[in-house]
């Protein structure tokens, strides 16, 4: 078996292969690759063909991933896609080997592609027309605010009425 260094984008292959073999067995394909229902049903479709259609990969590629025993690791993206196609994505959390690999892969992805928080939009600093204090306004549509708060707005209104 070829040993692959513990890179964050590689996971143990055996738990994924076990899940795939179990899925193939449940879908009438024996572990040795012979169909159990092929002789009975003329409309029989091989589960390898079903996996190939769902993943968009060639049937030989899927067969190689399931039966390739020389590598004890496979890429995280390949394993994730295969587990999601057979609806076993919870194995990432239930299987001890895969949960450790999942945590390693997620942390590795965060280091490779760090999550950047978007910056808040810059506030507009304005000066109150009544008291002269500076205040921030976040309004982006309509008429810009002229006053820092309700008391200044009311006082300016009263002054404007008294002047009229």
Count the DSSP helices. 7
How are strands sequenced across the largest beta sheet?
Answer: 1-2
| Shape call | rod-shaped
> What is the alpha-carbon Rg in Å?
31 Å
- Give the uncertain stretches in residue-range form: none
Mean pLDDT: 76
The main β sheet shows up as: 2 strands, antiparallel
* Count of domain modules: 2
User: In what range is the share of β-strand residues?
Assistant: 5-15%
The percentage helix is 40-55%
Cα separation of the termini: 94 Å
The count of β-strands is 4
> Structural class given helices, strands, pairing?
mainly alpha
* H/E element sequence: EHHHEHHHEEH
Question: Can you give a write-up of this model?
Answer:
- The protein has 164 residues and is mainly alpha-helical.
- It folds into 2 domains: 10-112; 124-163, no CATH class.
- Helix content is 46%, strand content 9%.
- It has 7 helices and 4 strands, in the order βαααβαααββα.
- Strands 1-2 form a two-stranded antiparallel sheet. It has a two-stranded antiparallel sheet with strand order 3-4.
- α2 crosses α3.
- The longest helix is centred in the middle third of the chain and has 17 residues, at 96-112.
- The chain is rod-shaped.
- The mean pLDDT is 76.
């Amino acid at each position: 078996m070829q040993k692959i260094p513990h890179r964050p984008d590689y996971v143990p292959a055996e738990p994924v292969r076990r899940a795939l073999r179990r899925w193939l067995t449940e879908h009438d394909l024996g572990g040795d690759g012979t169909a159990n229902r092929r002789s009975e049903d003329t409309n029989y479709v091989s589960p390898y063909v079903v996996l190939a259609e769902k993943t968009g990969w060639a049937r030989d590629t899927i067969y190689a991933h399931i039966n390739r025993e020389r590598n004890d690791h496979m890429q995280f993206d390949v394993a994730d896609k295969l587990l999601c196609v057979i609806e076993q994505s919870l194995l990432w959390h239930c299987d001890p080997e895969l949960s450790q690999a999942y945590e390693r892969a997620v942390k590795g992805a965060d280091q490779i592609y760090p999550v950047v928080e978007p910056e808040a939009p810059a506030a507009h600093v304005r000066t109150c027309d009544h008291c002269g204090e500076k205040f921030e306004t976040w309004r982006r549509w309509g008429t810009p605010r002229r006053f820092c708060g309700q008391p200044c707005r009311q006082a300016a209104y009263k002054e404007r009425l008294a002047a009229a």
